[in-house]
Amino acid sequence: MPNAIANLMLLVWPVAVLVFFQRLPLQRAILLCLIGGYLILPPVAAFDLPLVPDLDKFSISSIMALVGCVFVAKAPVPFLPSALFLRILVIVFVISAIPTVLTNSDRILFETLQDAAPIIFYHSELPGLRWRDMGSVMIGQVIVLIPFFIARRHLSTPDAHRELLLAFCIAGLFYSIPSLIEIRFSPQMNVWIYGFFQHDFAQMIRMGGYRPIVFLPHALWLALFMFSALIATVSLARVAESGSRARLYVAAFYLFCMLVLCKSMASLAYGLAFTPVVALASYRLQVKLALAIALIGCIYPILRNAHVIPLEKVLTKIEEFSPDRAQSLGYRFENEEVLLERAAEKPVFGWGAWGRNLIRDENDGRILSIPDGRWIITFGSFGWVGYLAEMGLLTSTLALLYWAMRRQETSRISPHVSCISLILGATMIDMLLNDTLVPVTWMCAGAILGYAERELYPRSFAPRQALFGGRQALDMPARKSQSHPVMD
Questions:
Q1: CA-to-CA distance for 158 and 117, rounded, in angstroms?
Q2: Which of 25, 14, 16, 22 has the alpha carbon at shortest distance from 162?
Q3: What is the pLDDT of residues 349-380, one digit of tens each?
Q4: CB 277, CB 422: distance < 8 Å
Q5: Gap between the Cα atoms of 273 and 13, Å rounded
Q6: pLDDT in tens, 46-81
Q7: pLDDT at position 126, please?
Q8: Closest CA to 167 of 30, 319, 343
Q9: What average pLDDT does the segment 328-340 reach?
Q10: Cα separation of 102 and 94, whole Å?
């Protein structure tokens, strides 16, 4: 159970965020709120209030970023993109909660004596979704998209992209310190500070050592963040002045060593594959690669649902390389199969909340299946409608960026937007195996979308009245931001 410090941190963070927005340039305040909240605040701990979603580290950081933009910085945050297709996806993403709730009003009973009709002896039940749950789910969907909306408006210029990647670099370097402590002494930072361990400790043991987790939901989340920090540093080094370039490449080498020590095969593979691409490939080629990866992430669940992917052959190939990895992946595939059967009972709008999408024991309601991939969680909870809206939003941002870059001269292309695209693409591939869709991911997607829209729909970024905020110039950082040399 979270201790008093965990709850206190969740209560103090909103006050700290307001100070950030008062004292720092807008872009840095946003980045510190979202990335800092993701890395520092306690996982799992949350305030369970009636009629609203749980207030945890993700939702608190997102809400306070919006509050800071609108009420402190007086910066507008419109809630609809310029492209019609993306507007439709945003609306569907939010209102898909309505049919999901309406089609899941029935209770699910777990009977101890199933053949005793007409008398029913039940051990427990999962409640049906009621009309008041509709508002809570829709609010939750809006909160999820807040970093996307904010980044689209205020983190979508080349200068903002540089600030975003610099934030990844610095955060990765600082986070390596507690990570190294956990690699040496076992994952205990969350226990020492917040009073509990957030996951299964056995999963933190790999290759005769420990995987760091610090304050994130799982060690795989930390490894993916280290990968993001690594390629962000390489992207900064590629265009840095000679005085800073050497230091950035040293930092990149250090972060690569940290990525190896994280003992995550997937994130290490991303690092080995994408680091030379970020360092050497053209910006357009990087965006093409990111889009191709994202499309694979979208198509894979469709093919899995159609049972056309040769899972046995895949496992056989992986077993030749690592039997342990093959066993882990095989366990994931088995869970996906039973969860797909469950989701097939309500394929359009899904099963909704309360874990209704999981496989449970018919007698006592114990959970028998473990959903790992983000796609199977979304598909089971919100059906095809929710899944296509979520993945469509993420993929469409990359598609729009690719279309916008075709119209740009090479000299006008942001030197860092392609790296952000690869971070998003790698995360979408990782989402096939893990639930790694976090506010930072939506922030990257929004930064990409805003950049593409500035090229394709420049009038949308002219000063005007926004849904939240007054009549303001859109590039608010000009109010008090200055140019800072990288790593100086």
A1: 68
A2: 25
A3: 999 977 888 888 777 777 888 788 899 999 99
A4: yes
A5: 37
A6: 998 887 888 999 999 999 999 999 999 999 999 999
A7: 81
A8: 30
A9: 84
A10: 15
Q: Which two tokens stand for residue 387?
A: 């899944």
Q: Strand locations in 342-406, DSSP E?
A: none
Residue 350 zone, left/alpha/beta (φ > 0; ψ -120 to 50; rest): left
d(CA 418, CA 402): 10
Please give the Cα distance from 400 to 257 (Å, whole number): 35
Taken in order 313, 222, 181, 200, the sign of the CA dihedral is negative
Q: What is the mean pLDDT of the chain?
A: 88
Alpha-helix residue ranges (DSSP H) falling in 157-282: 158-185, 189-194, 219-239, 242-261, 265-280
Residues ≥6 apart with Cβ < 8 Å to 4: none
**Of 45, 332, 329, 79, residue with least CA distance to 215:** 45
Q: What are phi and psi of 47, to 5 degrees?
A: -100, 120
d(CA 259, CA 261): 5
Pull the structure tokens for residue 233.
Answer: 């540093």
- Are 415 and 158 in contact, with CB atoms under 8 Å apart? yes
Tokens read off for 124: 């427990």
Entry pTM: 0.90
CA dist., res. 38 & res. 442, Å (int): 12
